[in-house]
Amino acid sequence: MRCLIIDDDPTMLSLVASLLARRGHDAETSEGLEPLEACPERLDVDLVILDYRLEGATGLDIIRLLMTRPVSPAVILLSGAERDQVMGAVALGRSAGIRMLGRLEKPLDARALLRIVDQLQASQGQIASREIRSALTRGHFLLAYQPKLCMATGRLMGVEALARWQDPEQGLVPPDRFISVAEQDGQIIPLTWQLVEQALAQQHRWTRTGIRLDLAINLSPVVLDCDDFLDAFIARVERHGVAPSTLTLELTETRGIDDLSRAHDHLTRLRDLGFGIAIDDFGTGNASMLQLYRLPFTHLKLDRAFVSECHTDPKAREIILMVIALARRLGLDVVAEGIETWEQGRMLHEAGCHAGQGYLFARPMYADIFNAWYAGYSATSSKEESSSWQTIQQKIMRCLPT
Q1: Measured between alpha carbons, how far is residue 351 from residues 240, 282, 357, 390 in Å?
Q2: Do 118 and 40 fall within a single domain?
Q3: Average pLDDT in the chain
Q4: pLDDT at position 254, please?
Q5: 289-301 burial by CB neighbour count: b if 16+ within 10 A, else e?
Q6: How high is the pLDDT of residue 401?
Q7: Is residue 81 domain-shared with residue 181, that is, in the same domain?
């Protein structure tokens, strides 16, 4: 990978560059903002490792400069500055769609840095358009289903259908390696229809066997730009005999909506027919107040960036409380993503969050594995209107794999 290290400490520049070079990466260095303003093309790399405190500037200045580039690199913040200052830079970057990989404190933890770099490199393996086309033809794209639980009772409310590429040679290819490529070359359209067909067929099977769940399907904003999207989607739902009231369409965050007027017309008609409409990753990137204001959503999904910090960071907690209160005033249900600890779950339960999903409850599962999980979990379901978090925790723990 091509990396740029920005730090006004020559010793730190040398250390990080050496670490990256040993991993086989091309590492350039810069001591501050001015050289990059004079030659902004130097920012056209895969990864920027950025010290927050620079002579005469801060990490915020660098991030603002990154926001002017046509393609932004991933960013790791490395600093001994106050946490609030650094998190402000993280928030600014995410709001602009920059991939903020995290922050590391000084003195440098070399292992932690290389772990993040290795993860980035693994996720950036280039997927060619022809590989996606071949996988579509051979039926290698599948759906995994992640349960969504009611945060008041622990009752299973629904599932989110998540795209998976099961390649016979590469194994499981994560979505962040192929979704953006599919969007850029137009293959997101046939990919979406292939996955929609799978999801609707599965929902029909579940309904026929007495399993009543809301099924959330992800839609790229690219799909909304298609002239025939609405009629084609509704025709597929009718052909599979699936009730619109059992489906929620989640507007994904990989790119913004080009035509808000058209999107509004499509989504309004779908909502009028009974479909749920969710704004995904709320609070980051393009999932903004403007979209919430102008589009007819029924659900709001809290981004995992807030959930992961909600039990330790007072600001993240206050943001979650504010979003839940706003959603209630607008008549929206709130779904929290990425719940991984009991402490996060407790905070969301006490805050009145409607639903949640995450590894704490269950990982995404292929349909046959989900059916077995469902049989065990539904046996513990409660019809109570509310339960204590301790009761919900006990119920979930009984269903965790041993």
Answers
A1: 38, 17, 16, 15
A2: yes
A3: 87
A4: 42
A5: eebbeebebbbbb
A6: 56
A7: no
- Boundary of a domain, candidates 123, 155, 181: 123
Residues 184 and 244 in one domain: yes
In sequence order, the β-bridge partners of residue 104 are: 78
Q: Which amino acid is located at 138 in the chain?
A: R
Measured CA to CA, the distance from residue 396 to residue 224 in angstroms comes to 37
Q: What is the pLDDT of residues 290-316, one digit of tens each?
A: 788 888 999 999 988 788 888 888 888
CATH number of the domain within which 40 lies: 3.40.50.2300
Q: Which domain holds residue 220?
A: 129-399
Structural domains of the chain, count: 2
Closest CA to 265 of 233, 301, 224: 224
Q: Are residues 178 and 315 in the same domain?
A: yes
pLDDT tens by residue, 248-273: 999 875 455 767 788 889 999 999 99
Q: What is the mean pLDDT of residues 221-240?
A: 91
**CATH code, domain with 314:** 3.20.20.450
- Which residue did the predictor score with more confidence, 248 or 37? 248
Output the pLDDT for position 354: 96
Q: Could you say which of 88, 123, 158 is where a domain stops?
A: 123
